[in-house]
């Protein structure tokens, strides 16, 4: 990956588009947003693969990320709470929780920050009728 300094941040390009990174949201994604998006995106992607492999049906999954930062330590990310809301019919919460734990152990982004950022995951099953 190549990164280029620009007036209000940094720019990089990928096959699917350009990414602007800046400490000012007016000019791009903030670095902490990208970190949280990487962790949440990897986590939900691995979770979905596990559910698909086990043929567990669901209608939708939404993940909400709450971030705790420490202003006394360069505003670093201390904790990310990922709340999974799974919508579907006849959901088995125990099985979903077990699969969420498996996904945590197989998510490269969660494992990469394991000893520096606390990642907590909770699950809510929303039964559709």
The total count of strands amounts to: 6
| Uncertain stretches of 5 or more adjacent residues | none
What is the overall shape?
Answer: elongated
Please give the order of strands in the largest beta sheet.
Answer: 1-2-3
Please provide a written account of the structure.
This protein has 129 residues and is an alpha+beta fold. Helix 1 packs across helix 2 (93-106). The strands form 2 sheets. It has a 3-stranded antiparallel sheet, with no helix packed on it. The mean pLDDT is 96. It has helices spanning 31-53, 93-106, 108-112; strands at residues 4-6, 9-14, 17-21, 60-70, 76-88, 118-127.
What are the defining features of this structure?
129 residues, 3-stranded mixed sheet, 3-stranded antiparallel sheet, 6 strands, alpha+beta
Summarize the structure.
This protein has 129 residues and is an alpha+beta fold. Helix content is 33%, strand content 37%. Helix 1 crosses helix 2.
Topology:
Layout (H helix, E strand, L loop, with lengths): L3 E3 L2 E6 L2 E5 L9 H23 L6 E11 L5 E13 L4 H14 L1 H5 L5 E10 L2
Parallel strand pairs: 5-6
Antiparallel strand pairs: 1-2, 2-3, 4-5
């Amino acid at each position: 990956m190549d990164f280029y300094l620009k007036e209000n941040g940094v720019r990089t390009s990928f096959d699917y588009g350009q990414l602007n990174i800046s400490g000012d949201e007016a000019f791009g994604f903030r670095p902490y947003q990208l970190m949280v998006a990487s962790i949440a995106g990897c986590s939900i992607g691995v979770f979905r693969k596990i559910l698909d492999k086990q043929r567990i049906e669901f209608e939708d999954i939404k993940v909400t990320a709450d971030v705790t930062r420490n202003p006394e330590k360069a505003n670093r990310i201390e904790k990310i709470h990922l709340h999974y809301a799974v919508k579907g019919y006849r959901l088995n919460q125990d099985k979903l929780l077990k699969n969420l734990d498996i996904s945590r152990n197989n998510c490269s982004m969660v494992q990469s920050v394991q000893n520096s950022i606390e990642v907590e995951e909770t699950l809510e099953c929303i039964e559709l009728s």
